[in-house]
Here is the input.
Amino acid sequence: MRQQFLSINDIHRSERLFRKHIVNPSLPLVSATETRNSASAKIDSLSPLQIVRLMNAEDQHVINAVAREELAIARAIDIVAERFLRGGRLIYIGAGTSGRLGVLDASECPPTFSTPPEMVVGLIAGGRDALTRAIEGAEDDSQAAVAELQNLRLSDRDVVVGIATSGRTPYAIGALEYAKTVGAFTIGFACNHNSAIAKIAELMIAPIVGPEVITGSTRLKAGTATKLVLNMLTTGAMVRIGKTYGNLMVDLRPTNEKLIDRSIRIVAEISGLPQPQAAELLNQCHGEVKTAIVAALASVTPDDARRMLSQHDGHLRATLQNSPSA
Here is the structure.
């Protein structure tokens, strides 16, 4: 195995960080996400099956931790939906696993809900390269976060979610501090109580998942909690602004064979048309699922269907309920 050596810059940076704690002993060296898990203290002596059972048992705690934050998550959904309706954006910002999960959730919104890429944005410390490899020191650069938000022309219509499972990542904290100066709504996410980011955020979501199976490896339970919460934020907000009909994604973008097939099935199911006719109507409507459904059920042209949807802010259910012929 090739031996890895620290560079001079790495050594100097480590010295600076340790010196901060020597000069200011009030800075915590150990947070809840860094404490040792007694259940996994001898994980290196377990069999593969025992490791699987141990990790699965630990992951059960994540669901309950997220459930305890349901009121904060629900409020966040309402705030994000309200900002969307005002033309605002949801911006995730974080470092490492936190940043990657924000980018992942943002990137899934356009194909799922047919949203423009700029509506939900994910920013990660260190830029695009950090999606696939660690960028040393990027999480400590709070000014880089400010520059990223300035490049996006952050405004008071936007929501910024600073994701930092430790609750003390300078990149995420710097982002929220700047966001407050322009009037954007700030939401913090951490897996520790009384964190530094909680002192800045207007709304805090803090599922306490307990110590990780591998000490400090927050890509595990903390990462799972992060993914669950981000799923709820975007899904909940998109439902609130009319991107679904029941549990059907009627605003999806049919960009591949699977999604084309799903679009046809959704139109056929809601309209009652045979699938070949549903496919033809979808083609006439340029792949717009909601437009095709209204056109079929209200017996109108695609252009009229679009106007009807626009009158009800794109909500399919409200459009159909207020259509005499639907």
